[in-house]
Amino acid sequence: MLLLESQWQSDRRPKETKISSQVYGLYPGQYERSPDWALGMFALRQLLLHAPRAAIYILAGLGVAVLALLLWRAGSFRRRWTILGGAVLVCGLLAVLSVRVSARLFCARFHPGISFHREGDRLFAQPTGLKLWPISDWTFAQRMYLGLNPIDVWLPPIQTEILPQSETRFFERLSGMPMTFSRDAQGRATGLTVHYDGKAIRYDRISDQPPKAPEPPKPCVAIKLDTKLLDAVVGQYELAPKDPFPKGGKVTIWREGDQLVGQAQGENTIQGAFDIYPASETNFFIKLDGAQLTFIKNDQGQVTSVIHHSSQAGVLDSMAKRLRN
Predict the structure, then answer these.
(1) 77-110 and 37-50 are packed helices; what angle lies between their axes, rounded to 10 degrees?
(2) What are the backbone dihedrals phi and psi of residue 198, each rounded to the nearest 5 degrees, phi first?
(3) pTM of the entire structure?
(4) Bridge-partner residues for 200, per DSSP?
(5) CATH assignment of 10-207, among 2.40.128.50, 3.40.50.2000, 3.40.190.170, 2.70.150.10
(6) Pick from 148, 78, 115: nearest CA to 315
(7) Cβ neighbour number for residue 11 with a 10 Å cutoff
(8) Do 10-207 and 227-322 come out as alike in CATH topology?
(9) Which fold has domain 227-322?
(10) Element (H or E) spanning 105, and its range?
(11) Which residue in 194, 201, 182 sits closest to 107, CA to CA?
């Protein structure tokens, strides 16, 4: 998506302009998503999707039963219409209240936000917090029990540059997506409005100090191994049903020249073949998703199983036993 929205589409991009160096110092800080109707609908939908079905059916059944009892005891036709109208009004008010409460609870629980920091006459933005996951894929994240916090899908979970179009209007360098800062009478930034996919998403400024950037993870370094050591891990492995692979699966590893190649079958696995690189005789890694593989050997030096360590925080390790054939 980032490549498709990148700056090679010059006809769809705003024009960058030069602004005073002092203006760049007005906007660094932390901004938090303001509760709104769309966010409330999203949070309420997630709650209903993951709530126990039995609880929803019981509550709905009790509500219908109470309404039927009131209508039965009402007596006159006029009273029944009054009760029905009151029930519709109460349900409508509760629906609106539920959406607004859900939006505020969502913001209080996950604090979706953006931080801005300045480097000279350049402004950079990044989603705040750790364990981030785009809102569009949050259902998948919850199904995987990743324990990740949702972020707005318009901004990737990486640092990205913001370019000025005027003193208050900026745009994201890759996609050209516009955003507008709001300022008070003294010129201090109070909030941010992001225009994405036809929607205006509002953020309130909660601090003028951006959070400390987390330490970047140390990358794995591939080493060269003798082909005999590579052949030692070649084979087929079976994953037992367990999160994040609830239906289990199989992993096949083979060698092509000096390169190990793997392919997995099952839910939540990488689709297609992927390269595997050695970090030691028993520790390997996958560049495609950052996962690490630890091969377990018995007393005779034969590989009996492999442990999959996901690069995603909160994902449990998974073990796959090697099949004899």
Answers:
(1) 100
(2) 80, 5
(3) 0.64
(4) 195
(5) 2.40.128.50
(6) 148
(7) 4
(8) yes
(9) Lipocalin (2.40.128)
(10) helix 77-110
(11) 201
Q: Are 255 and 231 in contact (CB under 8 A)?
A: yes
**Residue the block writes with tokens 């090679």:** 8
pLDDT in tens, the chain (325 residues): 666 666 666 666 788 999 999 999 999 999 999 998 888 888 888 778 777 778 878 888 888 888 888 878 887 888 888 888 888 888 889 889 999 999 999 888 888 889 999 999 999 998 886 667 777 677 766 665 556 777 776 676 678 899 999 999 999 888 788 999 999 998 899 999 998 878 888 999 999 988 776 666 677 899 999 999 999 999 999 988 876 677 778 899 999 999 999 998 887 777 889 999 999 999 999 988 888 999 999 988 899 999 988 876 556 788 899 997 6
Length of the chain: 325
